[in-house]
Amino acid sequence: MTDPAFTPDIEAINRIDAVPVILSMVKHLTGMRFAAVARVTERNWVACAVDDSIDFGLLPGGELVLESTICHEIRQHQQPVIFGHASAHPIFSVHHTPKTYGLESYISIPIIQANGDFFGTLCAIDSVPANLDEPAIAKTLTLFAQLIAMSLDTQSRLEATTVELSNANELGRLREQFIAVLGHDLRTPLSAVRMSADLLHSKTEDKRSLNLIAAIRNSSVRMGVLIENILDFARGRLGSGIPVQRKFVQDLEQVLQLNVAEAQAAYPQATFVHDLDLPMGVYCDALRISQLLSNLLSNAATHGSNSTPIVLKAFAEHDEIVITLTNHGTPIPAQLLPRLFEPFTRAEAEQSREGLGLGLYIAAQIAKAHNGTLHVTSDAEAGTCFTARFPARLHPSP
């Protein structure tokens, strides 16, 4: 009965289509009537494939006592062993293996995998002498052994890749579930909080209570922004990217103006100036472009100086829409610029700031989803300028 521990090795050899041909060629080249591929370990000698014309009685899965074989020695020195006439050989005439199995001719080539692991041997035996002095025989069988080793290595890599692909698919499924759960399980209770706050506000006249309700509402709004940022981060980093639906937007300029008005209300200490000159009819996801600009405006108001205005410009250039936002203040450190659009970068750089540091990452992902780009320059004289570009028209896929 085959030891289950060696079933994978036997199956691996059987999956190599060339093995039966190799064993047949070994017999043909050597004139010997038994050839096999053996798995040889510290304790076991197991036949993985056999071509037997002398009724040696060994089948795939069959074992020999390891110490009774020469392969036990080959495993240690990892060199071929060849003799064509054991009874006339100075060493093997007294060796226990030929005597035990009644062998006169023997050849065994080690099978060594790319990582240096010793798998076993490609061997041939016979009870009659054979002419094995021709150097081409040893060279050919060595090539056969190398071919088997390479095939085993290929199988191992394929199996590892299959496992990685399966794990990646499972991970992708879990990511999508995570995004769905995150969206549902966080949004639902937050909506309840907002609705409860609105209901309390409509039924309360006490000034102190109204202030507390206002704080709850403001906190829930901030929480909602954080949740949306986390969701977009999950989609962009863990899922298939931030989704956009590019449609024909008649007046993108008005959308950007509303963004500026909202930013001015949210940051009354800042001064916003805009110069918008956009054509009528742009293909984009207006909500996502609005989100991109909101993130840039919030970033500028948070990190820029209140003594100079934040300047927004939007215009068409060579069939592209260009949106620039410039603010002054402390320049962004040069070492931070290459990583600025990576998630959590600003949060790491300025621990005292609120938020997760996802705003610029999400803005860059929105630009990318529009087949566009988002770049930044920053110095003390010109200030910090973010420039977003994306095609104004839809183009057919190649």
TrEMBL record:
Keywords: ATP-binding, Kinase, Nucleotide-binding, Phosphoprotein, Transferase, Two-component regulatory system. InterPro entries: GAF, GAF-like_dom_sf, HATPase_C_sf, HATPase_dom, His_kinase_dom, HisK_dim/P_dom, HisK_dim/P_sf, Sensor_HK_Regulatory. It comes from the Bacteria. It comes from Pseudomonas retamae. GO terms for molecular function: ATP binding. Its EC number is 2.7.13.3. This is histidine kinase. SMART domains: GAF, HATPase_c, HisKA. Residues 181-394 form the Histidine kinase domain. The keyword Magnesium does not apply. It holds the Pfam family HATPase_c. It catalyses: ATP + protein L-histidine = ADP + protein N-phospho-L-histidine. PANTHER family: HISTIDINE KINASE 1, TWO-COMPONENT HISTIDINE KINASE.
